[in-house]
# Entry
Amino acid sequence: MAALQQQQQLQRQLLAQQLLLQQQQAAAAAAAAAAAALAAQPAASAASTSASTQDRKSREIYVGNLAIGVVTSDMLRELFNTILANQVSDPVNAPPVVNVNLDSSAGRFAFIEFRTRELTDAAIQLDKLELCGRPMNIGRPKGYVPPSQQQQILTLTSAVMAAMGGAAPAPGASALASASSLPVSGPTNVVLLEGMVTCGTIRDENERKEILEDVQQEVVKCGPVLGLAVPMPPASVTNAEPSRVYIKYSSAAEADRCRGMMDKRKFDDNVVQALFVTEGEFVRAQGGEWVAKPGLLMQGSAAPAGALPGPPGMGLPGLGAAAVPAAAPAVGGLALPPGFTLPPGFTLAGALPGLGLPK
# Structure
């Protein structure tokens, strides 16, 4: 009888211990969930702030080389509101320009925020527009990330955080190395055509012009082209290696059509490889740079110096009738982009962006 009572008491003790352990586990889980929710609040707030910043930067342009002491914020607002008035439905109550932030120290530059991304894309095309006798430098603000790349950067950040056990990644060589080796996976608004001809052909000026004409006739079938860039291969690249032709469209959908049309297509005995690249790589190629490895989300340092003499890159905005109608007003021998009008007293100084003509 005593042995039976001891066994029952032991069972009751074990049951009590199990119940206590379950309660402790439930309390620990509740505490962990509360801590995770508390930690998620600043992360969500930071993500919201980042998204808001990127949205503003996607609707903002940088305007430099302004006449110091002459150009005012009201002047810039009136200029861009006048030029882009026919791009909005109600230019009086909802004008294109939302805000103008002029450099308060000297007035050398300004940041102009527009109502939509489309208006910003249109304003970018007015690079080198002359104001008060000086051609303005118009471009994207520092920190701008094209929408097509934002999701890829979020994916990369998540992968780095997961690899570090959920901790926020600190800037370092390992994170940069991961980013620099990550290829552009999703559609962008820029397509790179590799191998249409050899580098030896591109180095010949006459052949180069003929190739550009052939590319023009093909790629405008997919949509209006904002620019072409054909960087000159450096001396370290042999004549037998594939050349590069960059095509920039106004949307990723148009670029996707171009990639589908040109990828694996044969020109003479050459097979074209078409891939998406970032807008940053296009700008570098337009400036004449031969990037070390094209098609990456983040590019490293510039290609080795020693490029052959000649034009660094050709850019031809608005190619074909689909891009610039024949009836578009001409200023200084150049056709304005569709829908643009210039107010009295304003002129285009030199070429439109990337045209590659002397200013």
Q: What stands out?
A: Residues 190-322 form a domain with the Alpha-Beta Plaits fold (CATH 3.30.70.330). Residues 168-173, 301-337, 348-359 have pLDDT under 50 and may be disordered.
